[in-house]
Amino acid sequence: MQSWYNIFPKNTGLSIYVWIIFCLLPFYFIFKTSSMLEIVFGIIMILLFFGSYRLSFISNGRFVYLWIGIEMAISIGMTLFYGYVYFALFLAFFIGNIQSRVGFFVLYTVHLLTTIIAVTISFFTKNELFFSQFPFIALSIIGVILMPFNTYNRNKHERLEHQLEDANKTISKLMVIEERQRIARDLHDTLGQKLSLIGLKSDLARKLIDVNVDGAKAEIMDINQTARTALKEVREMVSDMRGIKLEDEIIHIKQILKAAEMDFIFEGDAKLNGTPLLIENVASMCLKEAVTNVVKHSKATMCKVSIQELSGELRIVIEDDGIGISNRNDLQKGHGIQGIKERLEFVNGTLDFIQSKGTTLEINVPNVIKQTK
Known about the structure:
It comes from Halalkalibacter suaedae. The chain is of the alpha+beta class.
């Protein structure tokens, strides 16, 4: 069940208390009139407006446009008869939530024209009342012009972020399924034949043990050798099992940043030489988490990734030009930083944080070279 305050517009730059004032103000304008009939008529219009406004949030299809039409008529009436313009701000916010592009522009144009016409007429019929609140009326007109586009673009960006997140989850699931199938094929090819051979030779050794001891011993030796070979192949398969490669992750990051409309700058070489697969796998996961946080939290327009494979360590630097992280406690607890630190601790890596015009994360992982016999 939604709370009562959900009727008020959110993320408009105005406090909920300002919107409450906008709700109470019309009563002030109404009670300034001397006629009891006008007071009753004004109260009915206010209640009808907020009832329609609430219904417009919970309705679907054509009913939404019906309630908006009623709200526009009431807003015009309140402007002409009582000099109250500020219902137009409620409408401006709601119009920004219309997902249909055609519906948005039609309602935006109609609302803007009717508001300007009503304000212009009221200037000539209610001169003293309107001139006393001219700065607020001017701000309201600016709000009617800008707020719908701000709300519309913000909602569109949020929908794209959700679609991107869903697409990434789907891709991850498909990659997991593909990897499972590949592992199943490798296990079948590696162990299936060897275990079948061991089974056949075991049956043969059992039959020969009472007839030909030397032949049975030879089969047992073959079984032993086959088991050792299978064990070696399994170890090699597990060791060489594909993890997350940095060069693959860079391609994935480029796609994510492009979808988020961020510029991507890359420096260095993502193809590593001599770095263990485990180190590269952990570094790739940390890089993915860091860039995901840039997209979700930084509000940046650019993300730069630098990779250096030094003799003693692997260094990855992620920079953005976003809002940064103002509180170090927030850095430690949130924004996925804790997960990155835990992964790095597993391979004795470190994470450094630099706050400048944006945010810079520096990942350093000891580059342990594989030893070959």
